[in-house]
Write a structure and sequence with these properties.
FAD/NAD(P)-binding domain, Glucose-methanol-choline gmc oxidoreductase, 626 residues, single chain, seven-stranded mixed beta sheet, alpha+beta, 20 helices, eight-stranded antiparallel beta sheet, Glucose Oxidase, domain 3
């Protein structure tokens, strides 16, 4: 930009007063000025990182992810409030924008690359290196909305009504639905006309413009099993649907693109990238948060907050930062010599959606999504020139929500979700192995024999696990990752529910819709499961404990609850108990995980949390008449 203008100005200066020369330069100068204007006002131009932060801001938001980007954007709407947004990572790039490349940003510099601790008495991830599950989390402007498969699924109305029934005033489905709508710009005219969707928000939601023929078969299979094809974000959730995603014109619509880029020129919003927060500063006597410490360019810095500090660092980092700041379980913090300022169950109640990975079916027709077939020059050019084609497909083409025998009898609160993909492990083995941490020995035994077979897969996920885990400190050093223990499958019903879900998946393959492609399940057992007969409960339990697959939905580690709840960390207005001027606004506040993908609910939490802050501070201002 500056080089173009500089060249134009330099040439104009050299032209002197020669009218012919000057006339010939007019188009170049006009082009330079037009480009500058476009760069400054284009709502999708990347935000810049402030070189030096001020000593003090009204609000400090820690973490620019799915919720934090929303909070910072909305708070900066008040022009006389100053807002600092701290992000440990950098910015998005062209690769992260491409939906079909979502797996390639995981285990990259944009990813915190967390791993679970090795399991105890309830084994899981036995097919993975070191028996540890990879847990990708976004270390980038936009957070995990830059790494995920862009699925837009809000959860079930009964999830939120239970939150409210448990004492979380203001969080019923009818009360939170307006915050989903506030964000949304739904590009599907049929959905936008319903009361469950809206156009005009910052966040673009639409179906991928390209999909395989198997996506239609998936919907037909659902109908043949007696399910409705419906908008699972609408009135009812149970049923099958083409996946809705945070996609804009064939590219990823992260929360950075949606909420930060359009407002990047606001003078009251500063974004500091590569700035990792290490501690919330809390006054020992008043128990008031007054700022944060962060490390940038190898140097520790401090910045003060006049009004509030907001933690939006996610279900792993938010509890870690709280505990390092003296907010957490008393005995645990004291074991590290950390002074306890508020004894709360921070890091408890960890919940995640977990299921069976690598659940594969074979067909005969050459219509599946494989790297060899679609990573070609022609496909790339179609994407670049038309914003269409296979590269707009994030891999997950369909979703379904089904009821096992363990779900409530009314049938409106399904307990298993499917992610349907027209591919499997063999379609892109090197990247799948990297992302999942799958052992070479397991891959070579189970999936390598598939070779170039035409495969599709289901990911059956447990929507409401009874098993919960924890986040705990390993060290006072903020750069040492915490102990992440999801504690999967300690409740037998979690396994039994998943087995029921797996068998419904077999029924999907057996429908006429899939039988016309000669669909059949791939029956090669994992090395540790050869002693069990295919389709027995023992076979499936062994398989689940080997290829344990999380869809990366950690939540609930800073539980929201009323003051009567001994496990609550934040109140229903997301204020940390016992500490003034400190809130948590991200997926960690969920009392219980929602029955669906967590990115859309995290954005909703960001919207609602920002409104709560506005209500609290603007009402105080109004009372004081200032």
């Amino acid at each position: 930009m500056s080089n173009l203008l500089g060249t134009a100005v330099g040439l104009a200066f050299n032209a002197g007063t020669n009218p012919v020369a000057i006339a010939s330069l007019v188009p170049l100068v006009a082009a330079a000025l037009t480009f500058i204007r476009y760069w400054n006002y284009d709502p999708e131009t990347h935000p810049s990182s402030v070189e030096k932060v001020l000593n003090e801001y009204d609000f400090i938001v820690v973490g620019a992810g799915s919720a934090g980007a929303v909070v910072a954007s909305r708070l900066s709407e008040i022009s006389n409030w100053t807002v600092l947004l701290l992000e440990a990572g950098g910015d998005e790039n062209e690769i992260s924008d491409i939906p079909s490349m979502c797996g390639y940003t995981q285990m990259s510099e944009m990813d915190w690359m967390y791993q679970t601790s090795p399991p105890g008495d309830s084994p899981y991830c036995l097919a993975m290196i070191g028996d540890r599950c990879n847990w990708p989390r976004g270390k980038v402007l936009g957070g995990s909305s830059v790494l995920n498969a862009m699925i837009y699924a809000r959860g079930n109305r009964y999830d939120y009504d239970k939150w409210a029934a448990d004492g979380n005033t203001g969080w019923s489905y009818e009360e939170i639905l307006p915050y989903f709508l506030k964000s949304e710009d739904n590009r599907n005219p049929y959905l936008a006309k319903t009361k469950y969707h809206k156009q005009g928000g910052f966040l673009t939601v639409q179906e991928s413009p390209w999909r395989t023929p198997l996506a239609v078969a998936f919907l037909q299979a659902g109908q043949q099993l007696g399910y409705e094809v419906r908008d699972c974000n609408g009135e009812k959730q149970t049923g099958f649907m083409i996946a809705q995603g945070t996609i804009r014109r064939g590219t990823r619509c992260s929360t950075a693109k949606a909420f930060l880029r359009p407002v990047r020129n606001r003078p009251n919003l500063h974004i500091a990238m590569y700035a990792q927060t290490t501690k919330v500063l809390i006054n020992d006597h008043s128990k008031r948060a007054y700022g944060v410490k962060f490390v940038r360019n190898g140097k520790e810095q401090m910045v003060r907050a006049r009004r509030e500090v907001v933690l939006s660092a996610g279900a792993i980092a938010s509890p870690q930062i709280l505990m390092l700041s003296g907010v957490g379980p008393k005995d645990h913090l004291e074991s590290f010599g950390i002074k306890v300022l508020s004894d709360l169950k921070v890091g408890h109640n960890l919940q995640d959606h977990v299921g069976l990975g690598g659940y594969t079916f074979i067909i005969d027709d050459p219509i599946t999504f494989t790297r060899k077939r679609y990573q070609t020059v022609a496909v790339v050019m179609e994407y670049l020139l038309k914003e269409s084609g296979p590269l707009t497909n994030p891999g997950v083409e369909g979703l379904a929500f089904v009821n096992t025998k363990y779900a409530p009898e009314h049938g409106e609160w399904p307990d298993v979700q499917y992610h349907f993909a027209a591919s499997s492990i063999n379609a892109d083995p090197d990247n799948v192995k990297k992302v999942t941490g799958l052992r070479d020995s397991v891959f070579n035994t189970v999936y390598k024999p598939l070779g170039d077979s035409e495969t599709w897969s289901l990911l059956p996920l447990l929507l409401r696990p009874k098993s919960t885990g924890w986040i705990r400190l390993r060290s006072k050093n903020p750069f040492i990752y915490p102990d992440i223990n999801p504690n999967y499958f300690t409740h037998k019903e979690d396994i039994l529910t998943l087995i029921e879900g797996i068998r419904i998946g077999l029924n999907i393959s057996d429908t006429p819709a899939f039988k016309r492609f000669n669909s059949r399940p791939y029956k090669m057992p994992f090395p540790g499961c050869r002693q069990y007969e295919f389709d027995t409960d023992e076979y499936w339990e062994c398989s689940i404990r080997h290829f344990t697959f999380t869809i990366y939905h950690p939540t609930s580690t800073n539980k929201m609850g009323p003051s009567s709840d001994p496990d609550a960390v934040v109140d229903p207005r997301l204020r940390v108990y016992g500490i003034k001027n400190l809130r948590v606004i991200d997926a960690s506040i969920m009392p219980n995980i929602v029955s669906g993908n967590t990115n859309a609910p995290a954005i909703m939490i960001g919207e609602k949390g920002a409104d709560m802050i506005k209500e609290d501070w603007l009402s105080v201002r109004k009372m004081l008449n200032v």
